Every structure is written in structure tokens, then in C-alpha cells.
Amino acid sequence: MKLYKIKKYLTTNNFIVIFFSILPIAVIISPGVINFTIVLVSLLFFSKKLNWSFFSNKYFLLLFIFFLYLILNSFLSQDTELSIIRAFSYLKFVLFSFALAGFLNDNKKKVIIFKIWFLIIFITIIDVYFEKIFGNNIIGFVSSDPQRIASFFNKELIVGSFLFAFSFLSLSIFYKKKNLIYWTLIFSLGLAIFLSGERAIFFKYLIYIFIIFFLLEKKIIFFHKIIIFFIFISLIVFSLKISITTKDRQSLLFDTLLSDEKKNYTFVAKNIKNNLYKIKHFAHYYTAWKIFEDHPVFGAGLKTYRIACSNPDYFNENIAQSEVRCSTHPHQIHFEILSELGIIGYLMFLLFFCYILYVATKQYIKNKDILLLNSILYIFIALIPIIPSGSFFGTISGVFFFTNIGILFSFLIKKKN
Fold it and tell me: Which of these, 191, 192, 266, 273, could form a disulfide with 128 (CB 3.0-4.6 Å)?
């Protein structure tokens, strides 16, 4: 009898629920565990005959056309083997996003998954506060950088990115019932991201909170919204005063941009332009642009920035960080696509995702679902130019992006499947 009860729960659907639910834990453990998890849930989902209908969906076809271009581009690459492996890495994310979209059509399963995600996120936020106070996280990890928080990620300083990718989705379950709890959690999340020391992510968080607060809280008059938003900013500024390491980390970019030996603030705009050359990521952007200029049509090849960047012609003595311009990627999605895939790949990328955002926005206007809005905003903010970002094709950045894409697709295609 007991064996019968055990077998009753050993169903494909239950396994998919489990693996989708522990996705944030997979991200915490390692990229290898991420890949195992998303490939497994995709295989489990598409092994069911009814789910093959996704392959005739127009959104899948659009993303698959982009995949075919990546394959073609690989044969024109400076390193074909390196590029083609990365191309198939992209395909696994596409399949994963559609598996997630199809599975989230079941609201009961969606609630289970998001409740578990929320628990993981809540523990991580508490852990960030704990590490900030005591110098190490709950299980003893110590950050390699005193100005940043490691939390459960140990050597990978990405806890802010992790929170930004999963928190708004999991917090969606709180919005309709008790707005006070929802906004308390949102602002607690913001403080945790700020303390993490990830400047670009915190800036993205501010963009998010500004947009969503003005869209959702319609009962609050515009003037009061402005006051509340600036109170929040003031609290952040106050926290800068009481946290020296965080202050140094978060204000470094602005100090670099506005620095001027003569302190002549009449020429602040000129100073900003001149001091861009002092920022490390600007060296990446400049190098990626030079690679694009040399390979304008097809780019240098997927995942080849790390190779092409060593070209001595890309050294610029006027850029303070030019000697460290090489990295695994140029730390900005648009520069990454341009340098590695050329103008053809870039236009395909831009048109595909702009179209998807356009359709999703129209759908949100109809149903006003907070979960859909959160996924739209994540993708929109991720695609903002200039702001530093992870590699679009990287494992960690990829699972963040395509998790949100999958949730977005769950709204766009649920009536057809």
C-alpha cells in the first residue's frame, strides 16, 4: 500500500514541478547544475506528446530562425568550434523557456513554484543582511571583495543579479491581497541589492521601482508618488553615510564621471565625456565597437570577443583601462551582439525581442497581470543600452533572461495550447 502511494507521486509532472521549483538553488550551486536542471525539465516536458505543438508557435519559429543564424555565423567565426557550442547553448534556453511557459499554464503548479522561489529569495535577502552585519554569510562564506556581498554564491559576486532576476516574479503572488506587504518586500529587496555592491543591478532596480510604482499605485496621486519615491532615494543616501564600503562601491562610478582636478563644475558635461575613458567597462565597449567596425556584417563570431580583444590595434592609450580590455565578453548585450554577430545578427536580435515586448505589452494592457508586467520590465531593463550586463549567451545571465521570457510566453501562448 505504501509503495502504491509513493508511485502515485512519482509522475512526470511532479518531477517537473520539483526541478522548476529548485531552479534558484541550481543557480546558487553552479552553472553545471543550471544546465543539468534546464535540460532535464525541457526533456521531461517535451517528452509528452501534447507539448510538441509548441514547435509550430510563431514565437518559437522566430527564436529558432535566430538559432539558425547562429549556426551559419559559427562557420564564419574566428573559432568555429567555440561558436557552435555556444549556439547550441542558446537553443537549450529557448527550449527551456517554452517548457516553462507550457507548464505555468497550470495556475496551481505556478503558485507552488513561486512560493518555493519566494522562500529561497527571502532566505537569501536575510543572508545578505546577515553578511553585511557579521562579515560572513549564514554558512560561513566570506566575500573576496570587502565592498561586495557574496552570500551563498561564495566566489561568484552575483547575489544582486540573482535577486533582481527572481524576486519580482516570486513576489507577484503577494500583490493582489496585501499591497503593504508587497511594497515592504520590494523595498527590502532594494536595500539587499544595494548592499550587494552591484552598481548596475541597483541602477536597474531603481528604474524598475520607478516604473512599477507609477503604474500600479493609481490610487496615490502623482505628487505623493514623487514624494514617496524621493523618500526611498533619501533612505539610500542615508545608508551611504553609515556604510563606508558600500558608499565607496556605489559612488565610484559617479566620482569617476564627475571628477575634475580643478573642481570647475561649470564644465561638468565635458568632464563626464572625458572621464568615461577612466571606466573599465568603457574599454570593453570601445574594443567591442572596434571589433564590429572590422567585422560589420557577420561579426567576429559567437563567443570570440575573448579572442579578438587581444588584437594590439584595439589598444587605445587614451583609455585608462585599455590594457585590461580583454574579458570573456564586453559586459553589455548590445556591444556583445554587434561585435560577435555583426549587423545582421544584431538586427535580428533587436527586431525579435522588440516584437515580443510589443505583443506582451498589448497583452498586459488587456489583463493587467502583475506577473506579466514583471517579466516585461525585466526583459526591457535587461535590453537597455550602455548599462553593464552579463553575457546574453552565458549560463547564468541566460537562465535569468529566459526564465522571464518563459513567463512572458506563458501569457502569450496559453490560449493556443
Answer: 192
The CA distances from residue 298 to 10, 61, 308, in Å, are 48, 21, 14
Gap between the Cα atoms of 320 and 170, Å rounded = 42
Determine the 3-state secondary structure of 398 from DSSP: helix
Per-residue b or e along 321-345, where b marks 16 or more CB atoms closer than 10 Å to that residue's CB: bbeebbbebbbbbbbbbbbbbbeeb
Q: By C-alpha distance, which of 353, 340, 331, 336 is closest to 296?
A: 340
Residue 128 belongs to what H/E stretch? helix 107-134
Domain count, the chain: 1
Residue range(s) defining the domain that contains residue 57? 2-416
C-alpha grid cell for residue 201?
543591478
75-to-82, 180, 347, 356 alpha-carbon distances in Å: 10, 54, 19, 28
What is the crossing angle of helices 333-367 and 280-294, to 10°?
A: 100
Distance, CA of 202 to CA of 195 (rounded, Å) = 9
Alpha helix ranges (H) inside 277-332: 280-294, 305-308
- Residue 183's Cα: distance from chain center in Å? 21
Element at 402 (helix H, strand E): helix 395-412
DSSP code of 201?
H
pTM, whole model, 2 decimals?
0.85
CA–CA gap between residue 128 and residue 123 (Å, rounded): 9
Q: Please give the pLDDT value at position 377.
A: 93
Q: Which residues of 6-26 are buried (b: 16+ CB within 10 A; e: fewer)?
A: eeeeeeeeeebbebbbbbbeb
Can you read off the three cell numbers belonging to residue 190? Answer: 532594494
**DSSP H helix total and E strand total for the chain:** 18, 0
What is the band of 417 on the pLDDT scale with cuts at 50, 70, 90? very low
What is the average pLDDT score of the chain?
81
